[in-house]
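Example record used in the benchmark description.
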Amino acid sequence: MKDLVLDAASASTPLRISGRSTWIDAGRPVNATRIASLAAHSGVVDYVPGDLTITVKSGTTLGEIERITGEHSQWLPLDPFGSRDGTIGATIATGSFGPLAHSFGRARDLVLGLEFVTGEGKTVRGGGRVVKNVAGFDLVRLMTGSWGTLGIITEATLRLYALPLSPITVSLGASDSATALSQRITSILAAPGIPFAVELVDANTASMIGLSSKQQILVKIGGNAAAIEAQRAAMDALGGARDIDPKAWEQLREIEDRLSNDGVAPIVMRISTLPQKLPHLWSSIRSVLGDASGAALHATPSLGVMRCILPSSTDLQTIERMVSSVPEATVIFERLPHDAWALLSPTVVADRLAQRVKRAFDPSNILNPGILGAVT
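Model output (structure tokens):
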């Protein structure tokens, strides 16, 4: 990879960084004619189960990590949306996460160390292979979510956890009223114990993942037998809790594929606010979309993060109304039609600090140029 970057830099040839290209259409269009694929750069570099850490090459898939760690009754509690065929390098580069972030944190919280190649062909290591490593500038967090614009991740050291024995999932009803929904969420989050995941889904999403077609809150409970029993009792005390098939989580991870139309990916946007404001944000977005939009909505209340998956035919005026209805929230587009980026989200790196960081790591601007916007 280092030689490829050096060659590209000398020829001023932009590179499109990819893992297994399962999410290659996400982000702004990249103006590059050459692909730097890490699909074949896979495998375990170091794994000592007693340390609860594993170091893998960046092209290793999430499914492979799950298989290897599972043999030692361990797991990486990172469930980004999409299939298990996605690579760990792409997951870290895009900062992707899923419902398990409620309890275990996001990608940046589970990555202990990284190796990457900068746009100048320099190999850099950040973090380490131990849990306590905070010396110097935190390059790991800088690289996480940088979308390959600062360096090509080649290796990652990850924090593991003991594999839970028999987690269960329950569903609780959720009112359409923002006030009642807020009270329901507060009572769930305040209940004894910390569930693995708490996810709010709208009626359309619930139907698409095999549940009854109504708005509801999914709660994944894990731990030892005593912890599961106590948390289940706490959910029962709230009223209306019922067991559901845990496969619903896997269906939720792959929900974008269900909204694809003849190979055209849906529009995906992520909206963030303060956790206590999430119910009102949810209500505002639902009000704009109405009941006939065909959209799928879900949210992690404890993080204040809501995802909207919209049919590719959704008009830009509707998206603009959604954005304007939540002026205090942060909106991040994951997938948009090619021509819509310039209108809805031309750049996220217009500030001087972001521009200077980009130039420090990739002075020739050859790594995924344009994916975060124009660099001037």
